[in-house]
User: Fold GTP cyclohydrolase II from Pseudaquabacterium terrae.
Amino acid sequence: MVIDLPPVSVSPAIKASAEIPLAGGASGRFYSFDIGGAGRDGKAPDHVAVRFPGPSVEPGGVPLVRIHSECLTGDVFASLRCDCGPQLQESLALFGAQGGYLLYLRQEGRGIGLVAKLKAYQLQIEQGLDTFEANRALGFRDDHRDYGIAARMLQALQVERVRLLTNNPDKAAGLEEHGIEVDAVLPTRRHENPHNHRYLHAKREQGHRL
Ligand SMILES: [Zn+2]
Assistant:
């Protein structure tokens, strides 16, 4: 039996939405989108936004927003090779307190995909390249991510002004370029360990505030 669900929201760009209780006591409403953009397989990636209740999403507030690009190894397996996992956990803790939106973009490895990311790791280990040099050695640009998608997701959620949680100035500029007003840029903590020291150094060299 196929059940046709009624429209879930104000925007036709939102395909589905469901409330999901999360460990730690918070609860988030997960949204999926029909928002275009092609992944490497030609299909549009399943980007996700999660709305957390709290003062920042109440009327009169300016929502706290984090744009987080998928990192399977860091987010799911707590890889020490990058700082994605601890950044995601730090963001979730802030959302629990203040409310806000997590935009979880399915653009693994700064947009190059999991296979290429593993190849890039291999180059870093074997040839001593940094994360950006390794991507270039594989024929990619430094960063293949597209923040226009994040802006369209926010617009579908009727969010026009944000306080952005990031150390990456490209993300704030990317949102503003696509019509989202960035009221404030709030840095995340520095999550350094002996395995990601070089990775963080390369990100600093690329202009991240770390
Ligand atoms: Zn990562």
Observations:
- The chain has one domain: 14-107+145-205.
- The two ends are 52 Å apart (CA to CA).
- The beta strands are 14-21, 27-33, 48-52, 64-69, 100-105, 161-165, 181-186.
- The longest strand covers residues 14-21.
